[in-house]
Fold this sequence. Notes:
By secondary structure, the protein is α/β, with parallel strands linked by helices. It has a single domain, classed as TIM Barrel (Alpha-Beta Barrel), CATH 3.20.20.70. 43% of the residues lie in helices and 14% in strands. It contains 15 helices and ten strands. α3 (29-38) packs antiparallel against α11. The two termini are 21 Å apart. The structure holds ligand V47 and iron/sulfur cluster. Ligand V47 binds next to β5 and β6.
Amino acid sequence: MAAYLEQHPVASPLKSIAEKVLRGERISNEEGLCLYDSGELGFLGALANHVREQKNGNTTFFNRNFHIEPTNICVFSCNFCSYSRLLKHKEEGWELSIEQMMDIVRGYDGQPVTEVHIVGGVHPRMDLDFFCELLSRIRAHRPDLHIKGFTAVELDYMFRKAKISVEEGLRKMQAAGLQSLPGGGAEIFDESVRAEICGDKCSSDEWLLIHRTAHRLGMHSNATMLYGHIESFANRIDHMDRLRRLQDETGGFNTFIPLKFRNKDNDMAHVPEVNVTEDLRNYAIARIFLDNFNHVKAYWPMIGRQTAQLSQSFGVDDLDGTIDDTTKIYSMAGAEEQSPALTTEQLVQLIRQSGRTPVERDTLYKVVKSFGEAPVIV
Ligand code: V47
Ligand code: SF4
């Protein structure tokens, strides 16, 4: 970064932000907004890469996981969602029984996966007891598998229906085998944008309360941000500011995952998608702004393999995992990856081609296996 500043004339507010970041200081919301308003791609990439390498060196993490999507029937109607079906259109959706989900788990017997990620629509009849039974069955069948499951939106609905507090509900699920929460359902915290795009599901405060409580009970979680639709840059900064403040309080977030809005077959199909420059700028600003998050993840099934490669020069140090085509939330919304699956060798290769060192991690970023130094690219 110092070399970049020597070679490129940078206007004064940006220069002082860069100097602050190089000194390891936190930037303010106003400075974050200034990066969105006037930071050009090369400058943001150099600065984000500095932060990335300070935190994670040349490593890019991935994990071996698989997904279970219990249902796409959902009581909510988020306008950006291409995946869910209302109960009255049940014939267009799917509902898996516990036995069917256990068949998926058993399908990975003998394979070196370390995590199962469970996420889906909010089905009115799949309740807390149903999911506690699923958790206990998975735990009993494969005690070594880390169970990461259920967005705050799914949990909020389940706990309300069971008429129990967030803490009681989380304790019950934790006892049944739940270990971490994924980051979905955060969307954009700004209340007026949230009302427009997903007004009927849990509020921002409820999302934050569930993650705060989970952290207090010793669980870790992720945080997402759905960007590139009707939100403003100020809304993105506000979103990340609320996450940064919760992280200061609990330290329980593992990773931040920006999710690019995809516009196929949903009620926001008229909203154009942002371009790849904006994706990379957004990764970079997230990396610079969220100084207390150790990791920024690019979810490759959503942005495609090539942007995932590029993102590693813009702050990203994690490319999620080897995932089978059970992930439908993005393919149904128009993502490049219609049937996302990469073998470990392919993912390792993809990371190496970007000049980074692939490291397999578990859910909590413990190293499972390092695949050695990346070859020098000439
Ligand atoms: O909350 C839905 C998003 C999320 C669209 O924690 C869309 O490791 C873009 O959170 N365009 C669910 N995004 C998925 C999720 C996730 C994914 C990968 C890893 C992790 C993790 C979490 O998907 C929803 C919503 O923000 N989403 N529809 C769409 N049309
Ligand atoms: Fe339901 Fe989630 Fe889709 Fe919203 S984003 S409609 S909560 S499945």
